[in-house]
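Quick one:
INPUT:
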């Protein structure tokens, strides 16, 4: 819906400055909506409209039917920005090393008051990594951005490029090597190449092709290349840093769908998908889950010195499920022994106390039907490639450091899907491998966000412009000592680390919080506006002292 709205908005024609030479200035011409698909001909389309096809009867001398069907379109002529876009569709990338590619089409869409003129290029890299690129025609900032996907991927999500395309980025989105719905696993059955593409190859080949197409269009390579993604995109970020350290100058990975020792061996889920639902219905109703959350918050919210609906240190929360045990018949305010056992197991798996509201909708719907993470085909088609999650757990990222890369990893303590301990434990492991905190944080910093769930919308101050911070680090050498997060009243798009500038305005803030590099926490100073980040400071939970 978002991408359709943007495309519709972009269709309004406006004049932009055309190219001119010093010797012979030319009058700017309006960019028109155009497209090129050179492989199409006859009645199949292309940039010149339909073609009449004439068939001649076969003869002994000429037994093949004479036809122009299948003949490629002639390439357009010109060096203006719009023509250069169409010419991308005629570029032969079939011999690209490690990434043989076919561009299937290019479309020019004029600028509007809300978005710059767009060169939209589509193609695929063998065997079936489909991708789409948005190239700003007249305001390129000289940089390349690649976005990650979510769930099982399986579809193009170019709308993940909206925010950064408007800032001038050449932006790439891809489907991670297959077509599917968001949560089905059928595509991977008996298809090892598809599993490999999903696991790591597609992220790498997309970077190869994305930078080639960018250079082909603008005539020069991007000055900097970035990756940004959350959930499965967060796992892609880990893959890029661990396996392909020279692909990106800077990487942002959030709430990464990656397994660590001690978590569920089948999925990196925090056990909720299996524990909260059984054949015939939910183990706990939505109302019972709310009851649990109320008890958790009553006990643990005040522990950080401020009762604000956010648990800063969820690992320190002492709530025990047995405190809700029924002492008589089951009522709405107590839990059965079975429910308590399930709840104990959920917390033991890594799901943090304080995340309970996120379970509603994720595993148990508001009406107590199946949540979104309980797909109807999960029993018959279990996750067939568990190695994917182990394949992104290597803490030795010193090659990325040697290549000059910068890495921001973040997780949400109230994540209802991914075990947040996986994120913090990964950083701890990397720090041990690198050798010291100072050396590790010279190129890799992790931020654990209190109250943030897997999908934006919980109580945490989760809206953070991570890419601005990464740009400062990569391009200006300014490391992110603190990130200011905001809880927003409204969110235009819910794409993990991607936030629209128009949403990050003071009139749209409910409150703000500082977030410090893990393991340092933000703590209320005891005075000042509790809705203002300035009223908080850095606190070391290990020593129980303020950081100076």
């Amino acid at each position: 819906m978002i991408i359709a709205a943007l495309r519709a908005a972009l269709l309004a024609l406006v004049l932009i400055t055309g190219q001119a030479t010093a010797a012979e200035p030319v009058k700017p011409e309006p960019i028109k909506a155009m497209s090129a698909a050179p492989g199409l001909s006859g009645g199949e389309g292309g940039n010149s409209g339909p073609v009449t096809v004439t068939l001649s009867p076969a003869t002994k001398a000429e037994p093949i039917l004479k036809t122009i069907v299948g003949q490629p379109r002639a390439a357009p002529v010109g060096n203006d920005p719009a023509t250069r876009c169409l010419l991308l569709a005629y570029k032969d990338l079939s011999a690209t090393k490690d990434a043989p590619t076919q561009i299937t089409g290019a479309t020019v869409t004029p600028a509007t008051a809300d978005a710059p003129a767009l060169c939209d290029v589509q193609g695929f890299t063998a065997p079936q990594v489909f991708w789409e690129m948005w190239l700003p025609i007249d305001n390129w900032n000289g940089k390349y951005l690649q976005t990650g996907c979510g769930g099982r991927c399986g579809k193009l999500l170019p709308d993940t490029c909206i925010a950064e395309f408007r800032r001038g980025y050449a932006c790439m989105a891809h489907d991670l090597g297959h077509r599917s719905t968001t949560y089905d696993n059928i595509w991977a059955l008996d298809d090892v190449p598809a599993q490999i593409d999903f696991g790591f190859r597609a992220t790498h080949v997309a970077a190869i092709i994305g930078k080639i197409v960018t250079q082909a269009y603008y005539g020069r390579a991007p000055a900097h290349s970035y990756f940004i993604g959350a959930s499965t995109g967060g796992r892609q970020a880990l893959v890029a840093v661990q396996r392909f350290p020279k692909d990106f100058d800077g990487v942002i990975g959030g709430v990464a769908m990656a397994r660590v020792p001690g978590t569920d061996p089948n999925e990196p889920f925090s056990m909720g998908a299996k524990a909260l639902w059984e054949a015939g219905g939910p183990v706990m109703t939505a109302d019972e889950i709310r009851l649990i959350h109320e008890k958790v918050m009553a006990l643990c919210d005040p522990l950080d010195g401020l009762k604000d609906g956010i648990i800063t240190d969820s690992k320190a929360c002492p709530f025990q499920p047995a405190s809700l045990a029924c002492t008589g018949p089951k009522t709405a305010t107590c839990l059965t022994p079975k429910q308590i056992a399930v709840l104990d197991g959920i917390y033991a798996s890594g799901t943090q106390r304080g995340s309970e509201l996120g379970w509603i909708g994720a595993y148990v719907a508001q009406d107590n039907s199946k949540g979104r993470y309980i797909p109807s085909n999960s029993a018959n088609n279990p996750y067939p490639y568990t190695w994917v999650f182990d394949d992104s757990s290597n803490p030795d990222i010193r090659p990325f450091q040697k290549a000059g890369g910068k890495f921001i990893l973040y997780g949400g303590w109230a994540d209802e899907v991914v075990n947040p301990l996986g994120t913090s434990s990964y950083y701890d492991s990397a720090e041990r491998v690198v050798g010291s905190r100072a050396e590790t944080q010279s190129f890799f910093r992790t931020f654990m966000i209190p109250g943030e769930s897997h999908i934006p919308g919980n109580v945490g101050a989760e809206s953070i412009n991570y890419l601005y911070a990464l740009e400062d680090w990569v391009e200006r050498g300014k490391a992110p000592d603190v990130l200011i997060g905001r809880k927003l009243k409204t969110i235009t798009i819910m794409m993990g680390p991607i936030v629209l500038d128009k949403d990050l305005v003071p009139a749209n803030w409910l409150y703000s919080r500082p977030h410090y590099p893990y393991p340092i926490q933000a703590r209320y100073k005891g005075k000042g506006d509790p809705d203002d980040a300035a009223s908080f400071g850095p606190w070391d939970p290990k020593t129980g002292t303020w950081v100076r």
